[in-house]
Amino acid sequence: MAIGISRKLSQLTLSLHYGLSARPHRPGWVTLQLVCVLGLLALLAVSFAMPARAEETLPENSSSKSYGSGWACDIGYRATSAECEKVVVPPNGYATDTAYGRGWECEYGYVRKGMKCQLIAVPEHGYLDSFGTSWSCERGYSSDGTVCQEILVPDNAYLTDTEYGTGWECAHGFVANHDRCDEINVPANGYLTSSSYGYRWECDRGYTKEGDQCAAVQVPANAHINYGGDGWTCNRPYEQVGETCELP
């Protein structure tokens, strides 16, 4: 800035010299030139008086933030007061770019134990999860916490995809009884349902449950099977009187 003002001042000084020589009888022109020169001299004095802005000193192993002001430590270093201290990363670990926490994480297949990265012991028929921090058993095996045990599936059953419970369910038409699947006895005029509790069967339309059997609904004269299919309703204009349908 000072150099630019100095150059401008030199140009105006020359202009003033030539102006005074070319226009000796125009005092207004001389006054204007003098005002400009004095103004530039004042700016030049101010520019020399203002100290140059000191650039921020960055500590070693740091860089200026991409937004805002200040600085941040490079990956593998963390801020301690006004310095960047190297993060001690244990074997089988790697430095992170977070400004908080330990500053390191364990590699896939390792888990943090104190300040170390310990290898995850995956048992036979087991596999690491997608994060690499724990393991699960293959389909057909269940975990007891340390090993993967084969799931014994009884007859008329199939494997499930859940790691909870027995690991198997009975096929349709069968019910679990401890470690086996017993066939559901469906009575005549009945059918299997998808229910997982209770009888697991219902009676056909026109029949009603009586114990473990399906008995035919006894429809009196002037009546018909109801909407639910397990009873009867009088025809209009008949009204129910006990077990019969009578005119009102």
From TrEMBL:
Superkingdom of this protein's organism: Bacteria
InterPro entries: Growth_fac_rcpt_cys_sf (IPR009030)
Protein name: Uncharacterized protein
Species this chain originates from: Hyphomonas pacifica
